[in-house]
Amino acid sequence: MNLANKIESDQLTMINFHASWCGPCIAMKPHLDEAIANYGEAIHYERVDIDQNPGLAQIFEIRGVPTTMLFKKGNMKWRHSGVLSSQQLTEIVNENL
Questions:
Q1: For strand 67-72 and strand 12-18, is the pairing parallel, antiparallel, or unpaired?
Q2: Residues 34, 57: Cα–Cα separation, whole Å
Q3: Which residues contact 44 (CB under 8 A, 6 or more apart)?
Q4: Which Pfam family, an example, fits this chain (predicted)?
Q5: Residue positions annotated with a catalytic role
Q6: I want to staple 35 with a disulfide (CB 3.0 to 4.6 A). Which of 15, 56, 83, 89 is the partner?
Q7: 41-69, pLDDT tens digit by residue?
Q8: pTM for the model
């Protein structure tokens, strides 16, 4: 399933925009992995490297990384730039499921 289809689906989709050179992005990855592991198939999760996907970064108006977004049925439910803990991510996902 491509990214557009995931965003449009009934399932919650989390997209994390990052870069390989970004220290905060590297620090946040284990928190993302831990939070997402709790949901199994209940949530789609995509990591998008802005250097490898500059077109997507432009479409989503990414100005800084890490930037994380939640979508459901084509609507952006939440967006945040900066590092979050696994607990914070879990709370945000629970609020939007």
A1: antiparallel
A2: 24
A3: 1, 6, 9, 11, 12, 13, 14
A4: Thioredoxin
A5: 22, 25
A6: 89
A7: 899 999 999 999 999 999 999 999 999 99
A8: 0.94
